[in-house]
Amino acid sequence: MPPDSNSKFDRNRSGRDYKGKRKSESKDDGVRVQPHSIEAEEGLIAACLLDGGREILTECIESKIVPEFFYKTAHEEIFRALLALYATGDPIDEILLLDYLRKNGLEEEVGGIATIYAIQDRIETAAHARYFAKIVHTRSISCAV
User: Fold this and answer.
1) pLDDT, position 49
2) What contacts 51, CB < 8 A, 6 or more positions away?
3) Per the record, which residues fall in region Disordered (predicted)?
4) What is the pLDDT of residues 30-77, one digit of tens each?
5) Residue 22's beta-bridge partner residues?
6) Which residue from 97, 136, 145, 90 is spatially nearest to 117, judged by alpha carbons?
7) Handedness of CA 98, 114, 47, 134 (dihedral sign)
8) Which of 1, 49, 86, 131 has CA 20 to 30 A from 96's CA?
9) Domain annotation covers residue 27
10) How far is CA 128 from the centre of its chain?
11) Are 43 and 79 within 8 A, CB to CB?
12) Does 7 map to a domain?
């Protein structure tokens, strides 16, 4: 049963915390952050860059992973670029990815080749890509609820 509105536990109406002290006001109060895992996002992108990337990207497409599932804007744009490269049927690697980003004016937005190499160095094998994809997918769904 919820406490009555006169309760010292009612933080929203009284502006006080559970001990009756005034809670600090912050410009970030009320801002909710989407659940996310930057590490899983980077792991999934890195897996997409291994061995031509087509197999992992196929799994991502079949699992209905979309760029909007990525919390970090740079990761969203990189994944969108990977999907565009996948659609061409050409192999995928960090150089082709950078070229695509450069041609579309996104190189600086994602952090350039340094960011791509940093992400690519996160993993050595795509063995856990399915788990990274599951984390990215699950966290994006929990935000929508």
Assistant:
1) 94
2) 126
3) 1-33
4) 554 566 799 999 999 999 999 888 999 999 999 999 999 999 999 999
5) 16
6) 97
7) negative
8) 131
9) no
10) 16
11) no
12) no
Concatenating the DSSP letter of every residue in 46-100 gives HHHHGGGSHHHHHHHHHTT--GGG-SSHHHHHHHHHHHHHHHHT----HHHHHHH
Which position has the token pair 């990207």?
57
Tokens of 143: 């935000």
What would the mean pLDDT of 7-18 be, rounded to a whole number?
A: 46
In-domain check, residue 77 = yes
Which residues sit opposite 16 in a β-bridge?
22
What is the length of the chain? 145
Q: Answer whether residue 9 is part of any domain.
A: no
CA 116 → CA 9, 32, 66, 79, distances in Å? Answer: 48, 28, 19, 11
Percent of the chain's residues with pLDDT above 90: 60
Distance CA 82, CA 87 (A): 9
**The domain that contains 100 carries what CATH number?**
1.10.860.10
By residue range, what is the domain housing residue 124?
A: 38-144
